[in-house]
Amino acid sequence: MRPVSVWQWSLWGLLLCLLCSSCLGSPSPSTAPEKRAGSQGLRFRLAGFPRKPFEGRVEIQRAGEWGTICDDDFTLQAAHVLCRELGFTEATGWTHSAKYGPGTGRIWLDNLSCSGTERSVTECASRGWGNSDCTHDEDAGVICKDERLPGFSDSNVIEVEHHLQVEEVRLRPAVGRGRRPLPVTEGLVEVRVPDGWSQVCDKGWSAHNSHVVCGMLGFPSEKRVNVAFYRLLAQRQQHSFGLHGVACVGTEAHLSLCSLEFYRANDTTRCPGGAPAVVSCVPSPLYAASSGQKKQQSKPQGEARVRLKGGAHPGEGRVEVLKAGTWGTVCDRKWDLQAASVVCRELGFGSAREALSGARMGQGMGAIHLSEVRCSGQEPSLWKCPHRNITAEDCSHSQDAGVRCNLPYTGVETKETWYWDSGNITEVVMSGVHCTGTELSLDQCAHHGTHVACKRTGSHFTAGVICSETASDLLLHSALVQETAYIEDRPLHMLYCAAEENCLASSARSANWPYGHRRLLRFSSQIHNLGRADFRPKAGRHSWVWHECHGHYHSMDIFTHYDILTPNGTKVAEGHKASFCLEDTECQEDVSKRYECANFGEQGITVGCWDLYRHDIDCQWIDITDVKPGNYILQVVINPNFEVAESDFTNNAMKCNCKYDGHRIWVHNCHIGDAFSEEANRRFERYPGQTSNQII
């Protein structure tokens, strides 16, 4: 279908355009958006699937030819301008790497640079019309706010073809009317179209089609079904076919991206000689247990080489990969749905719902292992995809890639977990609950079972939660600990304030004050917030404690533990810092400080900032006066009692090897607890201190 003409210009309209800086065209009866000066007869539309009416691939018609925009240098400011061209008030986001599918024809604009205030995209800087070195795999898209500009009765959005779209897919069990366990893994394929749910003709149905359907439904793979049984069953049932001719390659993230045909309303004969398409999906072990299937091995052979960090829900997060025994991130250059889907399926989920760029799931620390990952979608692992190894200058953690995966429907959201005033509660049904954080519901967490240890009820004995879509994520700069660690023999007459705050070992109480000294292991502690929400103390300002020695309020009694451990984990010394003040010492270039300790200021750590406790301030040490020579582990744990919510607690501990000979100490191999592979961690704990590193 050819696009409908939007503007019918009259001679008077052209004369008015010459006399004033802007004019109103004479809209045809079918469309009425205003055309602003500067657009020079350009037309705009949103295209691609799957999408909502206010998002999609941006396409521009110029000189009668439709084309796209390259995502190089594309920004939210450019998206604002384009959304206004399309009749929306503003943009809420933008996409890269042809998220809505690659376009065709010309690539009209490349290196588009807008301030966001332009009235037309023609006022933005670019390489010039039709001058581009991009491919359609780099087509840009926009996500506009679903709100029209005043004066627009319709948006300037024209579809390539006004055809039907597959909005949703489900599996309907063909046998058994009783209550079936969730998730449903096998059944008739049904698609939801504007008129309701319809079935799909199985003529030409392939394993590739099943692979795409299973991915959409949150399953990593598919398996063969007993076609003869389902065809026999189909003869006894009535069916409503709405779709046929489905032909997928197998790498599509959504059925809408496959070649397919809808039956017309006047088609009286549908799916002759065929039957409804049937699919059987293979769930990951976590979901297999919940669906009542035979429980598989809970962990695959060998250690995983890909993981997700920083997500608020299962199946989402920052992508991290294991290389040479160390975890690192992936640069978002060329990151797309195919690469994201490989990650999701590798981790036991379905295909990718979103490929996230710009550290949307928080910034990582340490190495960036991969860049320009180009997957076909058929690879069993991200490491099998072509990629480029990068140097530190090539990419920054502000470009860390992330994913949101399709998950099976388990019905967990229909079980309500209530949080209310427990003054009238008469029964406690669970106690001893201990979760790892990956469980789908409280039922899957370890607990006391039918034996409830908490026999008393009331507000003091019942648990509650406050939910949030985002959380902080604290991470200690481990390299700085190693670089700044040293021993100081500090005279007792300089430690009165530290003794008052209980920052010394218990043997200090029997020392001959003010004579003598204490041996202190000093080091700097730089704590970054890499999450998506500020880290705020649990206690309110009214309960903060004033410390005269340090001249400010402390908002947390326990924020960090400093420990010296033997190889078998026995604690031989610990830091006795009584309480802490939280503030933004420094921030990234584009982040402003919000918190400071002085003058009873608000306390916390802003996203993108860090709190620095220098090695030379009071109590920033471990008193090792009573420690005997030997090999040890230095351990620092942030937020040890989990008092403040974080998106990831597995990176809160840092460990270092240290060797102490009674006079000097060697500190080396400092790393975050989950930064190493399992094998590297085993080697670390097996041989603490066994190295000839620099003497400190």
**Average pLDDT, to the nearest integer?**
81
Total strands: 33
Task: State the major sheet.
Answer: 7 strands, mixed
**Proportion of residues in helical segments:** 10-25%
Outline type? globular
Radius of gyration: 31 Å
Figure out the total of helices: 9
The first-to-last residue Cα distance is: 76 Å
Structural class: alpha+beta
Spans of at least 5 consecutive residues whose pLDDT stays below 50 are 1-38, 153-163, 294-300, 691-696
Strand content: 15-25%
Disulfide bonds: 70-134, 83-144, 114-124, 248-258, 331-395, 344-405, 375-385, 435-445
Family: Belongs to the lysyl oxidase family.
InterPro entries: LOX-like_protein, Lysyl_oxidase, Lysyl_oxidase_CS, SRCR, SRCR-like_dom_sf
Function: Mediates the post-translational oxidative deamination of lysine residues on target proteins leading to the formation of deaminated lysine (allysine).
Summary, kept brief:
11% of the residues lie in helices and 24% in strands. The protein has 696 residues and is α+β, with helices and mostly antiparallel strands.
